[in-house]
Amino acid sequence: MQPWQNESIIHLSQIIIQSFRERLGHSLSNLPDTSTGQQLAQALYEAPFVILAHDGATDPCFTYANLTAQQLWELEWDEFIGMPSRYSAEPDLREVRAAMLERVQRDGYIDDYRGIRISKTGQRFELGKTVVWNLQDTEGVACGQAATFSEWTKL
User: Backbone phi, then psi, for 114, in 5-degree steps?
Assistant: First the structure.
């Protein structure tokens, strides 16, 4: 079974897409509104751009990483999900990352983040213009943050 076929991931995918639309005022994907939850989840998972999400814990852990993110970080789904998201950055860059996440928490989203990340094998890469936004479920409860970007450069 693919991750996008799991009911909890279908639900999280809908939260990611809806929270993006609410925060930024436009759609994250080009799918028609008539798509089913599973179709949206599959499209998000197979998108040619990175989509990541982590929970709202004090030390947030990844709850979502689409296929493009998995390939970039050289991690399988099971390695990514549950990993503290701070591990996606090198130790000396984690404070900058934490400050960015605090800014997102305060402002609801940012659309100008750039940073350096590192893959499982040590490959460093620079993120292009990255959008990071707060996630909110259908009850209005904060449930983490998500990020997307479509440009990166290997260093």
Answer: -135, 145
